[in-house]
Amino acid sequence: MGHPPPPPRKNPWARKKPRAPKPPAKKQAVENPRDKRDFSCPNCGADLRFDPAVSMMKCTHCEAEVEVPHVDDAAAHEEVGLRDRLASGVKMETVEIASLNCSTCGASVEFDPDEHSRLCPFCDSAIVADVTMQRSIVPQGLLPFAIEEKEAHAHMGDWLHARWFAPNGIRHNAASESFNGVYVPTWTYDAYTATAYTGKRGRRVRSGKTTTMRWTRVSGAVTGSFDDILVSGSQSVSVEFKDALAPWPLHALETYQTEFLAGFRAENHTIDLEEGYAESQIFMRAKIRDWIKADIGGDAQIITSADTRFSDETFKHVLLPVWITHYTLGNRRYRMSINGQTGKVFGQRPFSNLKLAAGALAGFLALALLGGMLSASFGPDMRPYQNIRLSP
Ligand SMILES: [Zn+2]
Ligand SMILES: [Zn+2]
User: What is the sign, positive or negative, of the torsion defined by CA atoms of 172, 177, 180, 186?
Assistant: First the structure.
């Protein structure tokens, strides 16, 4: 078949080959252009890599620049009917890719014979595994890297510099960490929803010095639509995906071409279309509850039943660019991921209870001074989905 042969298994961790000019590459017959991963320089035959700085492929040896052939980006934005796809049982187009599976975090990453590190880009643990051929869905589109590794380093330095827990010198140490440019498989879902609900509306009634809540039964319907609800196609960076690295400028999606992948690695999906849809529905149902509460109005709301009909569901399967690295603090490693398009940083960080309490107290005092607020939250990059509440 036209697949490139799997890389040699003997020593997958061999150091980077010296960049000596290779003889001009033979014209390889490529059956499916979506399989093609290696591109050679028309000048000298050395490897071409996609360079985010110029949005072109660049020769690793002579620095010649080669344009990525322009393809209409309509395919990248095409919404595919979800019901039809699930009902018809039509399999999505897949491609076999030489991959490494991490037994620690479960990530499955494209194997790069030039990669000098034996560490999993996602969890930083050593991968002790053979290269296997993995079937991966061919995405319809991708968001190319727009931030180069150098910039990712700068963003990382700034992030650490601004953090209270980061000791002096960590910025210097972090400068020596190398980044992995990984394309993360992602599902996007759209849906129209109609929800019939029943519930209770509460109104505060004051009589003299006491206030009581008076409840009335209500029922009604809310409708709405969702556009591009993102669900990570893998578990490896799903936490970052939800809020921390968003927004993703999906209007800039390009039709999938392997030229964009040259020099980067694509992660294989481990969450399929249906599982991803179920996850997006959890998000949608939470949103719908907000709509219902707004519809009920009053001073308090109780939802007793909500019957939601989803329709016109569509999806896309795309790749999103993430720079991933780890930094050391104390004797632990923490992951840092950076949105490869926007440069937005999300770093894992240490949690010392004492420091956390001190920080929370300081935050509380500041807020108390400002407006007498009784709760303090450290914002999304502190600890996702968890607010720290203090009572006086
Ligand atoms: Zn060259
Ligand atoms: Zn891992």
Answer: negative
